[in-house]
Amino acid sequence: MRFSAIYRPTALFSLRDSNSTSSGAKSLFLPSPYAIKMAFLNQAISLGGEDFYENKKHFEIIRDAAIDYYIKGNFCVNNCFIKIQKQRDNEPFKSTVSFREYVFIDDDLEIIFEVNNDEGAAFLKQYLHRINHFGKRGCFFQFVRYNDNPNEPNVKVFDVKDVSFGLLQEYDDFANKLTFDNVNSYSNAKTTRSKKILVLPLISQNSSKSYTSYKCV
């Protein structure tokens, strides 16, 4: 079963690639499936009191949900240097400079979910509309509505046999055998991620030393 949740960006978006370091990081243009599912878990636990140790079926619904995107409009990427606090070894935190990107998105983002049955869709719809940010803290999104007849995704998985043009970025998702322990902040278990290269249908319009503007086609 497929449905979508439509969100409106209300602040600049920034989400580091999982392979990047804290000192220098480009931003993804979209919240990754991993970030979306973690945001969902946060709302389900904080507001719904979900216990994923007792109800493993609910966690599996989140883990196994397939996520696609339909995007439109313009994306403007601002690159800048900011001050952060960084600790080396056992020394106190010290101020240092770090490279960051912040993305302005001028239109709604449609996140498309595919689950096995109506029960899974109903569970996701309990909390998706409660999510108000993705990525870094302060990257706010406003939920707009659900759509039971979503658009066909226009963000595709990279295929060497497909000559589609666009911007390539690597996104991560929950691994197939991931358990709640792997994403629990209070567990010693390490998380595992699956990765895929996505092709975003964007072309560059304008650029300077401080920004690059893209248009969705």
Question: What features would you describe in this structure?
Answer:
16% of the residues lie in helices and 37% in strands. The protein is of the alpha+beta class and 217 residues long. Strand 10 and strand 11 form a beta hairpin.
Main attributes of the structure:
four-stranded antiparallel beta sheet, alpha+beta, 16% helix, globular, single chain, Alpha-Beta Plaits, 217 residues
CATH class wording: Alpha Beta
- Which second-level CATH architecture applies? 2-Layer Sandwich
Q: Got a strand count?
A: 11
At the fold tier of CATH, the topology name is Alpha-Beta Plaits
Strand content: 35-45%
Q: Which range best describes the helical content: under 10%, 10-25%, 25-40%, 40-55%, 55-70% or over 70%?
A: 10-25%
Q: Please, how many helices?
A: 4
- As residue ranges, the low-confidence spans are none
With strands numbered from the N-terminus, the spatial order across the biggest sheet is: 2-5-1-6
Overall structural domain count = 1
- Mean residue pLDDT: 93
Written as H for each helix and E for each strand, in order along the chain, the element string is: EHHEEEEHEEEHEEE
In terms of structural class, how would the helical and strand content be classed?
A: alpha+beta
- Main pleated-sheet profile: 4 strands, antiparallel
Radius of gyration: 18 Å
Bulk shape: globular
N- to C-terminal separation?
A: 27 Å
